[in-house]
Design goal:
The protein is α/β, with parallel strands linked by helices. It has helices at about 5-15, 35-50, 90, 120-130, 140-155, 160-175, 180, 190-200, 200-205, 220, 255-270, 270-280, 290-305, 380-385, 430; strands at about 25-30, 60, 70-75, 80-85, 95-100, 110-120, 135, 225-230, 250-255, 305-315, 320-325, 330, 345-350, 360, 365-370, 375-380, 395-405, 415, 435-440. The protein has three domains: about 5-135, Rossmann fold (3-Layer(aba) Sandwich), CATH 3.40.50; about 140-295, no CATH class; about 300-445, no CATH class. A hairpin with a 5-residue loop joins strand 10 and strand 11 (about 320-325). Helix 5 (about 140-155) runs antiparallel to helix 6, helix 8 (about 190-200) runs parallel beside helix 11 and helix 11 packs across helix 12 (about 270-280).
């Protein structure tokens, strides 16, 4: 299966506008198909060369592990040969590609370089110093997983296919988009993931920002690299360089299932450190994503338990308190599964990327958890969520659930369209929704 990101990464690397860069690094979590991308890249370049009547070889150096590295010369006529440190004459050609898998490349002469590797700085540090551009491969999305499952299931008997689909979908809810763990006929045992969680300590999670450890470490099982889309309002970086697709990222916990268990473990075993991190990380943008996810788990716990919470209307500035009874938590995958006519329900999506809302309290309360002062509303996602309200529920209420440090100055939010740009006009039901800031006191953790 050719992933959409394979095509996207290939287009970025071979874009005529990017010829200034000849060294490229494609990184990401283990088990998502980086080695398969190197094969796809070879295929596409071979085909491109043939269409342009270009006869150029390639040099490919696969992962060697503890063995001595072997490199292969792949010629345009389909023939090949191998050597341990050869092909120097070929690599003097600036149009030749040298492709290395999972180890630091060396002896590549004047050739263009593609390195595919997990996100470990010691492997790609030297290539970065040689002006290598870093691109990121995303983990598999739920849509990609489902497409692969449906294709695979067509060759199975009905009962076997149903069992496979159910097991893989359950594995995805725990492991997230790691194809190696989710897609095999015998999906990975969740006990291995539980073991990785129990070995987590907050200090190591924080230090994983910018670098995930390798195959033998547990951090890549618990944390995933999320590739962010381009920001249409910020086309260049602080140095004036064009920001490339697949170059923006943040760390996220592998799944909602993982983040819930990690938070509960930290709350039980490292409560003071967790409280300090949620407070101190407010001024550290590198840790904003992890802080936000842990805060979301804490806020969800507080709201489901019920109680009294300070709130402030974002239009009028008037403050009062919200009283909540204990709520029953219901997990859901799609908005069509929720019934907002049932009172005192706290609907929590198993898909963490549900647009616009992080949770819904029946019948008309929509929650967005954030630790950032700049958190716009995704208008279309909110409209779809509001459409699930019963007619007699009244206007929708959108709460931005925020920590106490930003609650006093949290402003009214702008609305974004599906293209990520600010909307001048909004759907009527979205425009009618009242916006509040809702305060969660971290000191009470």
């Amino acid at each position: 299966m050719v992933r959409e990101s394979y095509e996207g990464l290939f287009d970025v690397i071979t874009d005529a506008a990017n010829t200034l860069w000849t060294n490229w690094i494609v990184t990401g979590n283990p088990g998502i198909g980086k080695t398969a991308f190197s094969a796809y890249f070879l295929y596409r370049i071979f085909r491109q060369n043939r269409e342009n009547n270009v006869s150029l070889p390639f040099v490919y150096e696969p992962a060697a592990g503890k063995r001595r590295a072997t490199r292969y010369l792949l010629r345009a006529d389909g023939s090949a040969s191998y050597s341990h440190h050869g092909f120097e004459d070929t690599l003097r050609n600036e149009q030749v590609w040298f492709i290395a898998d999972a180890h630091s490349p060396s002896g590549y002469g004047s050739a263009k370089v593609l390195l595919v590797t997990s996100r470990r700085r010691p492997i790609y540090r030297e290539l970065r110093k040689a002006h290598g551009r870093l691109l990121l491969m995303p983990v598999w999305s739920e849509l990609e997983i489902e497409a692969y499952l449906q294709r695979s299931a067509t060759s199975m008997a009905t009962r076997e296919a149903d069992a496979y689909l159910q097991a893989a979908r359950s594995a995805f809810l725990c492991w997230g988009g790691i194809a190696r763990e989710v897609l095999p006929l015998a999906a990975a045992d969740v006990q291995a993931l539980r073991a990785a969680i129990t070995k987590c300590v907050l200090h190591n999670v924080i230090n994983s920002v910018g670098e995930l450890a390798g195959e033998q470490d547990i951090s890549h099982r618990v944390l995933h690299i999320e590739v962010l889309p381009l920001d249409p309002n910020r086309p260049v970086d602080e140095c004036g360089r064009r920001i490339l697709p697949y170059s923006r990222d943040r760390l996220r916990f592998a799944s909602k299932w993982v983040s819930e268990r990690v938070f509960q473990m930290f709350r039980t075993e490292e409560r003071d450190r967790l409280r300090r991190f949620l407070s101190a990380a407010a001024d550290n943008p590198e840790h904003a994503s992890l802080r936000g996810q842990l805060f979301e788990e804490y806020a969800s716990n507080c709201l489901q338990t019920g109680g009294t919470f300070p709130r402030r209307h974002l239009e009028t500035g008037v403050g009062d308190e919200l009283q909540l009874r204990p709520l029953t938590c219901i997990n859901f995958r799609q908005l069509t599964e929720i019934d907002l006519s049932i009172p005192d329900r706290y609907y929590s999506p198993t898909n963490r990327n549900l647009a616009a809302v992080d949770a819904i309290i029946s019948p008309n309360v929509f929650l967005q958890m954030t630790v950032s002062r700049s958190h716009p509303v995704k208008s279309e996602g909110l409209r779809l969520a509001i459409s699930r309200m019963p007619q007699q529920a009244g206007p929708a209420v959108l709460y931005f659930v925020v920590p106490s440090d930003i609650y006093p100055t949290f402003p009214r939010r702008t609305h974004l369209g599906v293209d990520g740009r600010v909307l001048e006009t909004r759907p009527a039901e979205v425009d009618a929704a009242q916006q509040f800031a809702l305060c969660i006191d971290i000191d009470m953790l």
